[in-house]
């Protein structure tokens, strides 16, 4: 379709069209013909408007943060990251550059909660097969339970402090190679190659979003469980990527909640069509009953559980 500078002068436009078409035929270029179908004879190709559209097409970089007990970490926990990543990428607006697993500290005081050192080690072993998800021990290193809003703030500040807006400037582990920096003891910090590449491209600040299940979303309505200010802080300043099961109705729940409804633009709902009912509670029950959990958790995690007799596992004498 041609866009004429003077629509009233159809005959003149037709002549211009033929001139361009003849040139394309002489050039024997299919690509040139494609360009003719969208050419605007009244504008040059390098206009400020086109540059603006190019900038608007830049994807927002996202770090997915999952908080929880991970007691133990299951294959479903890992699947949540993959499902969320696929869904965000399909929007064409986001690029997921990293996933973070943040186990709760021993200060949570939950029944049957194994020590953080064991839970973190199981997470670390389960993530050996992932190229983009990592363990972070900042939360688990705290003496007391840490509010989710504060955890998000910590990771956002960490992302912002790694580089400034104009140049690549690692702030930790500078003695290690620039491509991959890792602190292997408590307070694990990792800078992925994706982060290095994209930050250098100047795509703007990274967004840290809370990855969760539908149960966490619904827990916002439980009286006294969450501070109203924290709920607003989380959904307004960070955002949620919520994995829900087929048949649930998170949209209705969001509609009925004033805060969630107000910031629903920052809540990304992902339906898990391939249903999976694996839960850490069911895993612990099976282990306690000396039942197999193979293919429900990573083999490396099972080996660690058996070696350390976690969750009531009884190891037969060899």
UniProtKB/TrEMBL annotation:
EC number(s) per entry: 2.7.7.1, 2.7.7.18
Pathway: Cofactor biosynthesis; NAD(+) biosynthesis; deamido-NAD(+) from nicotinate D-ribonucleotide: step 1/1; Cofactor biosynthesis; NAD(+) biosynthesis; NAD(+) from nicotinamide D-ribonucleotide: step 1/1
Region forming the signal peptide: none
GO biological process: NAD+ biosynthetic process
Primary location group: nucleus
CDD domains linked: NMNAT_Eukarya (cd09286)
InterPro entries reported in the protein's UniProt record: Cyt_trans-like, Euk_NMN_adenylyltrnsfrase, NadD/NMNAT, NMNAT_euk, Rossmann-like_a/b/a_fold
Keywords: ATP-binding, Magnesium, NAD, Nucleotide-binding, Nucleotidyltransferase, Nucleus, Phosphoprotein, Pyridine nucleotide biosynthesis, Transferase, Zinc
A Pfam family that the UniProt record links to this protein: CTP_transf_like
Gene3D superfamilies to which the protein is assigned, alphabetical: HUPs (3.40.50.620)
Reaction catalysis annotation: beta-nicotinamide D-ribonucleotide + ATP + H(+) = diphosphate + NAD(+); nicotinate beta-D-ribonucleotide + ATP + H(+) = deamido-NAD(+) + diphosphate
Compartment(s) where it occurs, according to its Swiss-Prot or TrEMBL record: Nucleus
GO CC term, one of those recorded: nucleus
Gene Ontology terms for molecular function: ATP binding; nicotinamide-nucleotide adenylyltransferase activity; nicotinate-nucleotide adenylyltransferase activity
Entry similarity comment: Belongs to the eukaryotic NMN adenylyltransferase family.
Self-association state and partner proteins as the record states: Homohexamer. Interacts with ADPRT/PARP1.
NCBIfam families per record: nicotinate (nicotinamide) nucleotide adenylyltransferase (TIGR00482)
Protein name (database record): Nicotinamide-nucleotide adenylyltransferase
Gene designation: LOC106168766
């Amino acid at each position: 379709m041609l866009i004429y500078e003077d629509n009233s002068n159809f005959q003149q436009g037709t002549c211009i069209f033929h001139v361009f078409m003849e040139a394309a035929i002489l050039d024997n270029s299919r690509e040139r013909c494609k360009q003719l179908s969208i050419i605007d004879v009244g504008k040059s190709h390098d206009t400020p408007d086109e540059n603006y559209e190019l900038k608007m097409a830049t994807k927002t970089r996202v770090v997915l943060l999952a908080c929880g007990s991970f007691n133990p970490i299951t294959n479903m926990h890992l699947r949540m990251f993959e499902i969320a990543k696929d869904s965000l990428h399909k929007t064409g607006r986001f690029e997921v550059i990293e996933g973070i697993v943040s186990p709760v500290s021993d200060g949570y005081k939950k029944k049957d909660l194994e020590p953080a050192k064991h839970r973190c080690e199981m997470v670390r072993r389960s993530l050996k097969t992932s190229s983009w998800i990592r363990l972070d021990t900042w939360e688990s290193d705290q003496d007391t339970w840490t509010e989710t809003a504060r955890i998000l703030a910590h990771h956002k500040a960490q992302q912002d402090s790694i580089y400034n807006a104009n140049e690549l400037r690692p702030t930790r582990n500078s003695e290690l190679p620039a491509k991959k920096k890792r602190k292997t003891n408590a307070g694990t910090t990792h800078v992925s190659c994706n982060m290095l590449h994209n930050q250098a491209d100047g795509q703007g600040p990274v967004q840290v979003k809370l990855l969760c299940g539908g149960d966490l979303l619904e827990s916002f309505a439980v009286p006294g469980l969450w501070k109203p200010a924290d709920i607003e802080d989380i959904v307004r300043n960070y955002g949620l990527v919520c994995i829900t099961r087929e048949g649930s109705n998170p949209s209705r729940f969001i509609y009925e909640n004033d805060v969630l409804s107000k910031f629903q633009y920052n809540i990304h709902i992902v339906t898990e069509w391939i249903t999976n009912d694996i839960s850490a509670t069911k895993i612990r029950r099976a282990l306690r009953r000396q039942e197999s959990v193979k293919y429900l958790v990573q083999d490396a995690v099972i080996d660690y559980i058996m070696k350390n007799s976690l969750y009531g596992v009884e190891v037969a004498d060899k």
